[in-house]
Amino acid sequence: ATCLWTIGLFSSGISSATPTEELNGVGNLMDFLDEPFPDVGTYEDFHTIDWLREKSRDTDRHRKITSKSKESIWEFIKSLLDAWSGWLVMLLIGLLSGTLAGVIDLAVDWMTDLKEGVCLSALWYSHEQCCWTSNETTFADRDKCPQWQKWAELMTGYTEGAGVYLLNYFLYVLWALFFSFLAVSLVRVFAPYACGSGIPEIKTILSGFIIRGYLGKWTLLIKTVTLVLAVSSGLSLGKEGPLVHVACCCGNLFCSLFSKYSKNEGKRREVSQGNVSYYFPLKTLWRSFFAALVAAFTLRSINPFGNNRLVLFYVEYHTPWYMAELVPFILLGVFGGLWGTLFIRCNIAWCRRRKTTRLGKYPVLEVIAVTGITAVLAFPNPYTRRSTSELISELFNDCGALESSQLCDYINNPNMTRPVDDIPDRPAGPGVYSALWQLTLALVFKIVITIFTFGMKIPSGLFIPSMAVGAIAGRIVGIAVEQMAYHHHDWIIFKNWCRPGADCVTPGLYAMVGAAACLGGVTRMTVSLVVIMFELTGGLEYIVPLMAAAVTSKWVADAFGKEGIYEAHIQLNGYPYLDQDEFTHRTLATDVMRPRRNEPPLAVLTQDSTTVEDVETLIKDTDYNGFPVVVSHESERLIGFVQRRDLILNIKNARQKQDGVVSNSVVYFTEDAPQIPASNPQPLKLRRILNLSPFTVTDHTPMETVVDIFRKLGLRQCLVTRSGRLLGIITKKDVLRHMAQMMNQDPESIMFN
Asked: Could you tell me which residue ranges the CBS domain spans (predicted)?
């Protein structure tokens, strides 16, 4: 269900192709770019796109379409089709994302129950579905029906005994190992990019970084299948984060069907949600809303939760919260912040150890080992044996008269005549105390095992495990407050709002608040976190407790470090991503630009005196992504900037298709050809690939301004000048190195390898 707020991640906006304008030639000189060829204007893998160039190309494409639409009715129809293709893409994304979300939910429910038993009447039914269809199910034993049999009962015919328990235990572990082994094997063989959450990489891709294949068709297929297997294995992971990756793959898949999307890397990334992009255009908001509407309709039609609702953990409490309860809510926020800090530091330390030791060479063995430990320790405790989603749902629930959960084993007053939905606070029975011990053990287990699970080479989300930790802690606190209010209702903190025989405290609400607090402590989300909790629970009237817990958890966690788990993994992997933190150091552009002192001079091209051989030698001897073009080496007056890849493709194409272009042919970027003797070889005109308006700053520009420009404009590089004279260049990686250096970190350790 969480993918409903992310399906617009990667799919809206208008893309463009490179315009084909007429250029002035001289004599019979050939400007071979009059006919564009494939790969011009594209980018190499693991490089950053030029947002300003992509925007300019899209503007030119729009201008051309608008101009042609006035020429004929057919061109006008084509312009309408071009404008409406964005809505068509969003419709397709919504349909596919909603369908995949529903199918994944149904498959996870069935395969999770398959570890314990099977439905004899229909093998594809989960435990709950199997007993729904049974006419022999009673209300008291609604989880038991003749059609559903556990594996030991099916094999031996017995339902109780030590042998039955051990056989069910063994088969539970065996199924878990099989599911996880299959998941990690599929990822390793067919789609290595299908592992992990995907959110750190998605944030980096949307900021302009190229990772070929990360949003491909194979990644979509394998991630969908292995996500079901990984969650069903019982590992402490969720599916909400990977669903963001799945939704982005859907967007990329349909974008590739339309040339206006597939030929403009900038417009592909214009669409995003929540915390994963730099800006959010208004037209994208409407298209994303439309895609979410289609996905919600599709998911509602599939009804994967079996309750005719769109939310995963629907709650309906009958008691309002009171102002005095803000104290335990805030305490849960403190716990969430501390848990988030602990998890991030321990998980990053473990992932760094995985990357830098031999442990990283055995991903299959690691997954099998963690799965085995998880299954062996989880089975004896009923709160860790079941799926994490079922656990959270039970912790969120209010204890009504019809609830049979151990958490609802209260001592009832036989003279009680209250309505069913207004049961007063009651003393806890033995079942509640037993459940508290089991929940405490489950809390410790979830805290520890999640640290080692997140980041393995299988699809692994963090939303559900984080919510489970908070929900367990919140339910424990809620029961404690409830019992204090019952036994000590004359205390001053309870006296004004909790009278004897009243329904004062709802432990399920504390579980929901705790879940929000722990999720906020790990991700450092606030507003979007509260919205997500609304989507998952439908609890709109509890906005104040949720906001109080979310803000408190963020404040506490930020006191120990500003990075959320996704930003920490971005830094661990060295992705070139500029976060939203303010840069407050008093440095200038001249302190960061290259070349530095004692470094070779900046590699440049001249506008009309560089030969093809000079360009090829420069490309061979350097690995720069582009080169400034100046009037001459003496004046160093800046003319423009040309991309390395465009130079390589154009020179290669000219040598193959244009007669007379040899190594000593002059390359010129001016409108008119230079004056050269008639005996010289034919010159090569490359003005069209020259960016005549590269972004520039002066050498005294504060780095605070430069960082803000890079962040908001998505620059790949900017040139540093003084009175029009080129002094140096600042790239995105230079900015990242400088920011790391200012934070006393190793500048080279954060670079992507």
From this structure: 593-657, 690-748
